[in-house]
């Protein structure tokens, strides 16, 4: 039948076409790196084959596959996502002057350092004999170049605005002059800035689109072998001449396995480590001997923002009453399934080195909250269950990210119990963050990370900098202001004496706890699980890697850990 | 020939309409950064977007210029830069489209064969009552993503017969050995879900068409009863219902494409559906718009092909 | 009313009965609800028991109460969306026939919207517009009228060419007379269309909720299904039996029942 043949032919052609495009499009995603790597791998295979012919031992390739959150950009400094996992992957390829391990800050590319008395000049003695993976030796020129380049092309994760000048003293010595004292310079800048090889980057004028293979060359423990953007997979090959030590695996594969699927992938053996596993899934693996579950501070904080344009919000007692109305423990349990800790009024997380245990806390007490509200002048005159303050109904929109609906529901309910109405308004995270930074909200809550390490993050409540200029806080609109806070904060930012600084930071926390510029609600817990029969030795770096990134796969793990599988 | 010309003109008009929709929709939605209804907030939100976004959309220019600019970009295949992926939208869609077409194409083919066969058989049976169709109606009532999750639960997690996610295993890429087999293995579940969700529509429609013809041709049926029937009957029926079936398939293909997107979202299958899911979650406007335009154009093309086929067949 | 009932087959009568049950559950269900659906004071993740017939979710909401409240939202969504799209579609269908010149234009517009997968457009709009109930319903109406339009138009055009109407128009009757004549033949189609749209609206809502769009604090079945699917141990324990299944069954039965009612054998 002609029609049938036409149909059959058509469908066959359609299948064939789609199969070809399907397989073809998969192949298209590989970057040029893979062909290079394949030819070098082929060469390597030849030499290794010759070697193993002589060797009695035959070693299988040690490939470590871990879960990642999909495609977060080409692994170069300006193209990878600046957030947590992006930075971690970048650190496998790029090294920094200082780094952190289990004990704390350690010298890395810089062998030694000294700080001038006034705290404005840092001199780094660089390690000798280190070279980039393309063979070029690493010198002080590269360090100077990196600082200069980043001044011209700001790097999203780390700002170098406090650097006045970087100068080369000799081939392995570099001097960095700051324009103001900056306490976290060593940990946050020297410990985070990836060093760019000068000979590759000196002619790059548009770093955001620089995705050539050379963009991923540096001194790090791994070399980029393949970046499959469609599948969200990164394949890294070990750098056999790594200066810090022997890399204990041959290949690292970061595969696109989301948090919800990572437990299953771990159990089926598809991945060896799941740093993004969800809390309950990790807890369910706790009792298995072949899986190790690690818990650590999540270095992130969730807080409720006030817009001080609202009359009632500007009244301290009302804010305090609202804090009493919130059940912080229930939030941890109900909204987050126990995967975190209740907030502290002083903002700094309990259990961290800078925490002040003597700050005022606000116990969950609805009656006290109601009393404080009525004492402040809020009363329900028309009997509709909502308080009025100065003639205005205490009804506010609550802006929040759509995935946080559990916390939103809790807050709406808590406030309703004391007579404040919250109208929930959800949006995607980027919109919420933008709204907060512009002051386009009445009440909002949001989570932000990088919450740990040096208490420089307390600058978010300071409105005026040391030079008298208004400082940028994360929040727009009318914010809370306190001259005393600004004064103490600006002093602490330049204070060299540790004991004195501790005292200043304690005072800051007391002010925060008393004034409540925001309500600190919740600190997230970080959790990860891995198969210890394949590779062991992961740990959570205290205070996080770089600027408070909680991740078990500090690149040092690949040098200090052990490959267990046969 | 005239008919062909008319068809070309009509589809040309449709294409223009789709382009207009794709252009105007983000501009009339409140909350969109390109919104013309609330320009103040829109331009404020614009600050957060990278230069590539502003260059592509040129919001400061008058609407007519923007539209022409948009058309110009489209002609050169430029769909803008994705905010999340930081790559060209056209590239991202191009890489994913193949997998979606693969899944949708195979699903459509298999479900058509099974659906038409089953529908006709059910329709031709003596004293046919629609009761035998109820399981199909029930199946059709299940939203496709729920069907996907249920099958995933049963076959991937409880029985461990099939992988639960992805188009191929972690670490594999097209040059690895056994890649094709791996892809097929990973495709079984998503394909099954798609087939199950498409069969009911086609089968029920075929049943109704067959019954309609049967009712009309009741008298003729008596004559046919004397001959060795089945094949002749089926050929006769098939030829008569074919144009209608093609019409239904045309619409069904579109819903198949839409359904594929949801199945991909569930199985983390790297097609357009996955892109859409991440784009929606992050409000990646250029990517969403690109996907919308691509799928709409695809739908138009599919529709045109089917209409052409119907014309060819009806003409005999 | 009696005429309609007698025209239905036995199975269809059962389905109609189920529909009525849904309606009653929407109207009176919350009276039987042991807890307010947004009450989370109970312990989390309890299995079914005497106090909580279907157990509780991760926050402590009583699942049975949430399922009951879902009836209300479902009815709200499906009835308003159906009403809106059927009205819009029918009016446009009538206009396109009564004023044939703009009729062709509307027809083309409707065809384009029929070619495009409507769920995609709804998703697009839901992603950008503020996530409220009203916006969701409005977008459903706006994108599903073409289907109504198409069917209404084909049915009405048959009526238009009938003698009755032609005669009315001939003697110079105005628009309202024509409408009255059409109504007599046309209203069964409207009923069918209404049910068809009602079932589609529920599927849309469920799909939108799955993508995380729509009002996040409203306890609809779509949201319940989404929560159930997002439950961390969904694949590993049996919680889905009482967390996912009830809402899923409610949705599936509703859509299936409406499809059966709309099903007309031999009518394509």
TrEMBL record, chain A:
Q: Which Pfam families match?
A: SBP_bac_5
- Tell me where in this chain the Solute-binding protein family domain is found: 105-459
* Protein family per UniProt: Belongs to the bacterial solute-binding protein 5 family.
- What's the protein called, per UniProt? Solute-binding protein family 5 domain-containing protein
Keyword Ribosomal protein assigned to the entry: answer is no
UniProt xrefs under PANTHER family: ABC TRANSPORTER PERIPLASMIC BINDING PROTEIN, PERIPLASMIC BINDING COMPONENT OF ABC TRANSPORTER
Give the record's keywords alphabetically. Signal
Intracellular or extracellular location(s): Cell membrane
PROSITE patterns assigned to the protein according to its UniProt record, in alphabetical order: PROKAR_LIPOPROTEIN, SBP_BACTERIAL_5
Q: What is the recorded membrane topology of this protein?
A: Lipid-anchor
Region span, Disordered: 38-60
As recorded in UniProt, coiled-coil segments are: none
What is the annotated signal peptide range for this record? Answer: none
TrEMBL record, chain C:
Task: Give the stretches traversing the membrane.
Answer: 12-32, 75-99, 111-130, 242-263
Q: Which UniProt keywords apply?
A: Membrane, Transmembrane, Transmembrane helix
Subcellular localization(s) per the UniProt record = Membrane
Q: Which PANTHER family match?
A: OLIGOPEPTIDE ABC TRANSPORTER, PERMEASE PROTEIN, OPPC IN A BINDING PROTEIN-DEPENDENT TRANSPORT SYSTEM
Q: Which Gene3D superfamilies match?
A: MetI-like
Protein name per its UniProtKB record: ABC transporter permease
Matching SUPFAM superfamilies? MetI-like
Instruction: Print the organism lineage.
Output: Bacteria, Bacillati, Bacillota, Clostridia, Lachnospirales
Membrane topology (UniProt): Multi-pass membrane protein
InterPro entries for this protein: MetI-like_sf
Source organism: Enterocloster hominis (ex Liu et al. 2021)
């Amino acid at each position: 039948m002609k029609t049938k043949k036409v149909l059959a032919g058509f469908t066959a052609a359609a299948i064939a076409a789609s199969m070809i495009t399907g397989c073809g499009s998969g192949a298209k995603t590989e970057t040029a790196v893979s062909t290079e790597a394949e030819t070098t791998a082929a060469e390597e295979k030849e030499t290794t084959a010759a070697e193993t012919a002589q060797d009695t031992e035959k070693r299988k390739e040690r490939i470590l596959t871990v879960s990642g959150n999909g495609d977060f950009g080409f692994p170069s400094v300006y193209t990878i996502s600046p957030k947590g996992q992006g930075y971690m992957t970048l650190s496998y390829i790029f090294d920094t002057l200082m780094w952190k391990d289990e004990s704390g800050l350690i010298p890395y590319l810089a062998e030694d350092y000294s700080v001038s008395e006034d705290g404005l000049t840092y001199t780094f003695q660089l390690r000798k004999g280190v070279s980039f993976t393309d063979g070029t030796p690493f010198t002080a020129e590269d360090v100077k170049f990196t600082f200069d380049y980043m001044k011209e092309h700001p790097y999203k994760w780390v700002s170098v605005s406090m650097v006045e000048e970087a100068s080369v003293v000799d081939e392995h010595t570099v001097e960095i002059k700051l324009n103001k004292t900056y306490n976290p310079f060593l940990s946050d800048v020297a410990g985070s800035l990836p060093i760019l090889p000068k000979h590759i980057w000196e002619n790059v004028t548009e770093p955001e689109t620089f995705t050539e293979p050379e963009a991923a060359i540096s001194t790090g423990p791994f070399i980029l072998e393949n970046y499959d953007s469609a599948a969200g997979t990164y394949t890294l090959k070990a750098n056999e001449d790594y200066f810090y030590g022997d890399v204990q695996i041959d290949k690292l594969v970061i595969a696109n396995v989301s948090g919800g699927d990572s437990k299953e992938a771990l159990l089926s053996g598809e991945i060896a480590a799941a740093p993004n596993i969800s809390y309950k899934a990790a807890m369910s693996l706790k009792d298995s001997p072949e899986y190790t579950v690690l818990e650590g501070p999540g270095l992130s904080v969730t807080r409720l923002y006030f817009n001080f344009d609202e009359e009632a919000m500007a009244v301290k007692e009302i804010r305090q009453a609202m804090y009493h109305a919130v059940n912080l423990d229930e939030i941890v349990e109900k909204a987050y399934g126990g995967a975190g800790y209740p907030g502290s009024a002083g903002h700094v997380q309990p259990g961290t080195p800078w925490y002040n245990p003597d700050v005022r806390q606000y116990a969950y007490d609805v009656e006290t909250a109601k009393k404080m509200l009525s004492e402040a002048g809020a009363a329900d005159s028309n009997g509709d269950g909502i308080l009025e303050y100065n003639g205005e109904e205490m009804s506010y929109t609550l802006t929040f990210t759509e995935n946080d609906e559990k916390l939103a529901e809790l807050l709406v309910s808590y406030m309703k119990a004391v007579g404040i109405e919250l109208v929930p308004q959800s949006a995607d995270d980027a919109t919420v963050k933008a709204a907060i930074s512009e002051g386009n909200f009445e009440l909002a809550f949001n989570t932000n990370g990088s919450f740990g390490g040096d208490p420089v993050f307390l600058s978010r409540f300071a409105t005026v900098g040391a030079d008298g200029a208004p400082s940028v806080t994360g929040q727009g609109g009318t914010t809370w202001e306190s001259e005393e806070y600004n004064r103490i904060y600006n002093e602490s930012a330049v204070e060299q004496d540790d004991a004195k600084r501790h005292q200043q930071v304690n005072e800051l926390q007391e002010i925060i706890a008393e004034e409540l510029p925001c309500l600190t609600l919740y600190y997230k817990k970080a959790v990860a699980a891995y198969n210890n029969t394949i590779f062991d030795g992961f740990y959570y770096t205290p205070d996080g890697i770089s600027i408070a990134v909680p991740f078990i796969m500090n690149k040092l793990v690949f040098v200090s850990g052990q490959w267990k599988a046969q | 020939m005239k008919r062909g010309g008319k068809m070309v003109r009509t589809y040309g008009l449709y294409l223009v309409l789709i382009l207009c929709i794709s252009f105007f929709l983000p501009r009339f939605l409140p909350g969109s950064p390109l919104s013309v209804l609330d320009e103040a907030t829109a331009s404020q939100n614009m600050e957060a977007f990278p230069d590539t976004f502003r260059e592509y959309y040129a919001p400061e220019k008058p609407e007519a210029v923007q539209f022409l600019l948009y058309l110009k970009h489209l002609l050169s295949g430029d769909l803008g830069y994705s905010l999340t992926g930081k790559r060209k939208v056209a590239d991202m869609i191009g890489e994913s489209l193949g997998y979606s077409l693969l899944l949708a194409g195979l699903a459509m083919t298999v479900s058509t064969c099974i659906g038409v066969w089953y529908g006709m058989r059910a329709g031709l049976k003596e004293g046919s009552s629609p009761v035998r169709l109820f399981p199909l109606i029930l199946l059709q009532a299940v939203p496709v993503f729920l069907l996907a999750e249920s099958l995933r639960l049963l076959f991937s997690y409880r029985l461990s017969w099939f992988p639960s996610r992805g188009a191929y295993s972690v670490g594999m890429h097209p040059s690895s050995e056994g890649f094709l087999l791996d892809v097929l293995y990973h495709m079984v579940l998503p394909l099954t879900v798609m087939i199950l969700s498409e069969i009911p529509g086609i089968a029920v429609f075929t049943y109704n068409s067959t019954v309609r013809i049967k009712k009309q041709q009741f008298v003729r049926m008596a004559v046919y009863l004397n001959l060795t029937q089945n094949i002749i009957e089926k050929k006769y029926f098939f030829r008569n219902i074919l144009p209608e079936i093609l019409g239904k398939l045309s619409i069904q293909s579109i819903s198949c494409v839409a359904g594929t997107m949801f199945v991909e979202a569930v199985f983390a299958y790297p097609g357009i559906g996955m892109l859409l899911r991440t784009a929606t979650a992050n409000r990646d406007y250029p990517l969403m718009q690109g996907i919308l335009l691509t799928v709409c154009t695809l739908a138009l093309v599919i529709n045109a092909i089917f209409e052409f086929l119907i014309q060819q067949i009806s003409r005999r | 009313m009696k005429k309609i009932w007698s025209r239905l087959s036995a199975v269809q009568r059962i389905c109609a009965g189920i529909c009525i049950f849904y309606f009653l559950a929407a109207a009176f269900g919350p009276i039987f609800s042991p807890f307010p659906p947004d009450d989370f004071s109970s312990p989390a993740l309890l299995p079914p028991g005497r106090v909580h017939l279907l157990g509780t979710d991760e926050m402590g909401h009583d699942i049975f109460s949430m399922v009951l409240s879902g009836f209300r939202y479902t009815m709200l969504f499906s009835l308003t969306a159906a009403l809106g799209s059927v009205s819009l579609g029918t009016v446009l269908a009538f206009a396109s026939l009564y004023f044939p010149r703009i009729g062709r234009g509307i027809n083309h517009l409707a065809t384009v919207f029929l070619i495009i997968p409507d769920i995609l457009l709804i998703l697009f709009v839901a992603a950008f517009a503020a996530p409220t109930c009203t916006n969701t319903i409005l977008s459903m109406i706006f994108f599903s009228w073409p289907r109504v339009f198409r069917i209404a138009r084909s049915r009405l055009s048959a009526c238009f060419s009938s003698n009755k109407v032609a005669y009315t128009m001939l003697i110079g009757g105005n628009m309202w007379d024509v409408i009255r004549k059409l109504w007599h033949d046309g209203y069964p189609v409207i009923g069918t269309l209404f049910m068809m749209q009602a079932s589609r609206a529920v599927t849309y809502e469920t799909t939108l909720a799955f993508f995380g769009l729509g009002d996040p604090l409203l306890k609809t079945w779509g949201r319940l299904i989404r929560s159930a699917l997002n439950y961390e141990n969904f694949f590993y324990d049996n919680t889905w039996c009482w967390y996912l299944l009830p809402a899923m069954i409610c949705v599936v039965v509703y859509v299936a029942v409406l499809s059966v009612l709309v099903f007309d054998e031999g009518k394509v």
